[in-house]
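[Solved] Which block belongs to which protein?

Original post:
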Amino acid sequence: MTKVPLRTRLLISHLTVMAVAIIALAGISRLSTPRYFVVTLERLEGRGVRIQQMRGQILESFADAWARGMVWSVLLGGSAAGGISYLLSRRIIRPLTRMEQITQRFAAGDWGARVPPSDIPELHQLGHSFNRMASDLEQVEQQRRDLVSDLSHELRTPLTIVRGYLEALTDQKLPATPETYARLLRETQRLQRLVEDLQELSKLETGYLPIQRQPVALPPLIRQVTQRFRDQQQLESENPQIVVENSPNLPTITADPVRTEQILVNLLSNALKYTDRGTIIIRTWHQDQQVWLAVQDTGIGIATDDLPHVFERFWRADRSRNRRSGGTGIGLAICKRLVELQGGTIHVSSQLNQGSTFKFWLPKAT
């Protein structure tokens, strides 16, 4: 079945409407005009004007004049209406044709292609919606490219190390000592953490990770997490001190206790990675219907220009330091998503060489 272009359809619709109007006008005029003319003649005769002998000739002349006038009216009126219909059809179709060209460029990989504004409100709104969709798709494509680039970068380092050690062990250039196997184990564990974090972040972003909300008391949860970190710190020296400052009469929150603990563990682990000595303070307070939790450290801090990127996947201000610490660069992105899924928001403030503060709030239990 042949598809008729929209321009042709619009032109045909205009011409059809015009034809119906002309036929209606001609038909009604053909039926009524001669009758009215005869009535006019009869009135003249009633007033004493004698036109009886010339009546037939007058009627014939009138019909001929009417026919000629109708033909010229149809020709001139139809031509003018057809021309105007054609111009209107072009005016309506031109933005759509331009939009089609833009979509073809966009499909070909020209992510910067945008539809220009139109003076027709409906088409202008359609173009605006397309441009907004194009911007979103461009951002998604850029994120995909960044993800592939960052992921390949993250995988390259541990894989290169593992391959180097395995080749050295195979060629017997490196002794098979427990230290060598421990290094290989650390790198494989890093790969495993990266894959697990990516899988969890993917579930969070697609909504496949369920959130089991229930009333949760923060002080016992904080005490449990900090005790775990203090036990680990006893095996190491020169670690920062962990201090907890809970607000009195802190209300319970509505949250998933497992996911809330995961947020706190990620924030506390991040603070310990970048704080060689000093103090890490975990502070809680409540305001209206929000219960806040902050993790404040005295570490290396974050530059002001880097703060907007802190919660992005694989972001790091110091790539080499983060790699040595074993981080995957996804923990803060997971924290942000977990907080948002539970109805809260997370913020960060920091100054270089003075420390950072990550704080988030979750809704108070009703």
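(Second protein starts here: sequence line, then its structure tokens.)
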Amino acid sequence: MEKNDIIKQINKIFIDILEDDSIVLTEQTSAADLAAWDSLNHIQIITAIEKFYNIRFELDDLLNFENVGDLCNGVQNRLK
């Protein structure tokens, strides 16, 4: 699956969980860029992504996600 397709799907998840239709994610987007992306919402986002793609991230994956690009790479790796 292409990274752009993953970003589009993840963007929809962020909009739904953070309740903000104006969100437009890029690979560089991080929690510091979105005020509503706090620790509680982060857990909800990760859970929603895992459910959507029917994958499960390892703890090491989660600890290394610094931005949306890293998150997309994690999804791509789990889908292989």
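Accepted answer:
You had them paired correctly. Confirming on the second one: The first helix runs from residue 3 to 18.
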